[in-house]
Amino acid sequence: MIIYSRNRRMRVNDSVRRLVRETRLATDDLVLPLFVMEGNNREEPVTAMPGVFRRSIDLTVKECKEIYELGVKAVNLYMKVSESLKDNTGKEAWNPDGLMQKTIKAIKDAVPGMIVMPDAALDPYSIYGHDGIVRNGIIDNDATIEALARMAVSQAEAGADIIAPSDMMDGRIGVMREALEESGFSNVGILSYAAKYASSFYGPFRFALDSAPKADIEIPEDKQTYQMDFHNSREALNEVYKDIDEGADIIMIKPGLPYLDIVSKVREATDLPIAVYHVSGEYAMLKAAVQNGWLDNDKAVLESLTCIKRAGADMIFTYTAKEAAMLLNR
Ligand code: PBG
Q: What is the pTM of this model?
């Protein structure tokens, strides 16, 4: 018996495997989401996310310096807003002296090369924990996108590089783009959470910001009237095309690992850069298994991120960004 074609030939040793390798993960691909809170020299661990902290601005800046040195040059910012500042308009979101605006300025001052991507959504600012303004028991889409446009301009004024709306309202990319252009921020980009699914994997994130939707008979308790139904895949393309038409610069798919079919499909559909969010629940699952001794942390982290890239991602939002960068630099 003669076998002419042997796939194992190109796997015989590490050097040859590297030679034929199709996907390479780099620190340039990583975006670290950060949770920020008021105070000085304060740091609190986030429940269900071992190794993740809420930090005051000074410690957030320190973290930014450290990760920049490691090669992670983009951060995505989320604020823990005090209850007393929450309402149903989101007005704290465009307060020029708000926590978000102060954080953006502090990071840009200390690490000018860092790409600062603030989250633009109302949920951390909402008494209802929703990404929209609630009116008569429903989420008022058009009032919400006006608020988001103000929020985006305010973030740009503070020095943001790329605004990252994670709300899933219709038409928000267009009004944000228009507001940014009219305010002279034509170089500030928009990373659209275009295909964001209503997912149970956001649980730990909502603990981190205390932003879970409140149970209320008048308001839909979950986010299914704006985030996508996880049974659907074609619908993701519809979302992506609309956001591209409205002026999005980068397209996001979220969550990550359970949605790689969507990533691959969107990769075929657009030549714009694609971001994928390896979300809090995915991080929690991985760390829980590691804490039990059931998974090898370093191998599982690098495999997870590389597979997201293989599916078509150009960049990955991940809470593992710092440790992944350390592993990649070894
Ligand atoms: C809210 C927002 C969420 C996440 C990012 N922005 C949660 C939600 O939609 O309820 C989730 C991120 C994560 O789970 O890591 N606008």
A: 0.97
Q: Take atom 8 of ligand 1 and give the residue whose Cα is closest.
A: 202
Number of helices followed by number of strands (H, E) in the chain: 11, 12
What DSSP state is assigned to residue 255? S
Return the residue whose CA atom lies nearest to atom 10 of ligand 1.
202
Range of the domain at 176: 25-328
Total domain count, the chain: 1
State the closest ligand 1 atom to the C-alpha of 166, by its place in the atom list counted from 1.
16
Q: pLDDT tens digit string along 187-231?
A: 999 999 999 999 999 999 998 888 888 866 566 668 999 999 999
Among 279, 283, 317, say which to mutate for ligand 1: greatest number of ligand atoms within 8 Å of CB: 279
Integer Rg of the chain from CA: 20
272-305 pLDDT per residue, tens:
999 999 999 999 999 999 999 999 999 999 999 9
